[in-house]
C-alpha cells in the first residue's frame, strides 16, 4: 500500500496544512553539539498574549497528537509546539536520553526564540518532560498541566487502578513500539477504552513502515533512559502542577509497570 498510496503520508500533509492554517509555521533551530530541534511557532507573535508550550507524548510527532487542540488555544495564547528529540524532525548526536535532557533542549529552543516566560502542558511522556522543565527552570514557568502522565502514580495505586504490567523494558518497547499489525492492535486495545472494531493490516503496516514515526533503536533508548531516571526520585518542584488522567487509562508510562 505504501508504495502507491500512503494514508499516513497523506494525513501528515493534511496536519501540516492544518497547523499552517491555524497561524503556526515550521521552524528548525540548531542548538549546537549535534542537536537540532523542530518546533511549530506563531507566524506573528502577539506580545499581549501569554505563551503556551505544548509537549507531545510517546508515539508520532506533535502534529498527530495536537492537531485537534491547536484551534482551541491559538486565539488566547502564543502557541509553541516542539517535536521532542527523535520525534518528527528533532534529533541529536549526543547520547543523553532522559526527560531531563529533553527538557533542557526544549528550553534551549524557547530561549532561541526569545521566549522568557511560559505556561506548559505535557501529554503522557511529554508530561514528564514538562515536569522536568518546571523543576529545572522554575523562574521561567508559570502554570503547568500534565495529561495522562501518571507522574503521581505510586506502588499502592496498582491495587486500585487497572494497569498492564510488563516484566522487561523490551516487553514495554514491544507494546509501545509495535513492529507488526498484531502488536499495533494490542497497543490500540490498551490505549482506547472503546477501541475501533477493526484495523486493516495494510493501514497498520503503512504506519509501522514510516520511519519518521517509528525509529525503533532511538525510541527504545529513550524508553530505557526514562525507566532509568524513574528509579530515582523526581526532582523537587514548587511550581503549581495540575494533573489530568482518564479513569480507564492503562498505558500511561508510570502505569505501564515494569515489575
UniProtKB/TrEMBL annotation:
Residues 50-149 form the AB hydrolase-1 domain. This is AB hydrolase-1 domain-containing protein. It comes from Dovyalis caffra. The lineage of its organism: Eukaryota, Viridiplantae, Streptophyta, Embryophyta, Tracheophyta.
Amino acid at each position: 500500500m505504501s508504495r502507491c498510496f500512503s494514508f499516513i503520508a497523506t494525513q501528515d500533509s493534511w496536519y501540516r496544512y492544518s497547523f499552517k492554517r491555524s497561524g503556526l509555521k515550521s521552524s528548525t533551530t540548531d542548538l549546537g553539539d549535534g542537536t537540532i530541534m523542530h518546533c511549530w511557532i506563531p507566524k506573528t507573535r502577539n506580545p499581549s498574549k501569554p505563551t503556551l508550550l505544548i509537549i507531545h507524548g510517546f508515539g508520532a510527532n506533535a502534529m498527530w497528537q495536537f492537531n485537534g487542540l491547536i484551534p482551541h488555544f491559538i486565539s488566547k495564547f502564543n502557541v509553541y509546539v516542539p517535536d521532542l528529540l527523535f520525534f518528527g524532525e528533532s534529533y541529536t548526536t549526543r547520547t543523553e536520553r532522559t526527560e531531563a535532557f529533553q527538557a533542557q533542549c526544549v528550553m534551549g529552543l524557547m530561549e532561541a526564540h526569545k521566549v522568557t516566560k511560559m505556561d506548559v502542558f505535557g501529554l503522557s511522556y511529554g508530561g514528564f518532560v514538562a515536569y522536568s522543565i518546571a523543576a529545572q527552570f522554575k523562574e521561567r514557568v508559570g502554570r503547568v498541566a500534565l495529561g495522562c502522565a501518571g507522574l503521581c502514580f505510586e506502588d499502592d495505586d496498582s491495587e486500585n487502578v487497572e494497569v498492564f504490567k510488563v516484566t522487561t523494558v523490551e516487553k514495554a518497547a514491544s507494546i509501545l513500539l509495535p513492529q507488526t499489525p498484531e502488536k499495533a492492535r494490542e497497543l490500540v486495545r490498551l490505549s482506547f477504552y472503546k477501541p475501533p472494531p477493526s484495523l486493516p493490516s495494510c493501514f497498520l503496516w503503512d504506519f509501522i513502515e514510516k520511519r519518521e514515526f517509528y525509529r525503533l533503536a532511538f525510541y527504545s533508548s529513550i524508553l530505557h533512559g526514562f525507566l532509568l531516571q524513574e528509579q530515582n526520585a523526581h526532582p523537587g518542584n514548587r511550581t503549581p502542577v495540575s494533573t489530568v488522567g482518564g479513569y480507564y487509562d492503562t498505558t500511561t508510562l508510570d502505569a505501564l509497570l515494569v515489575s
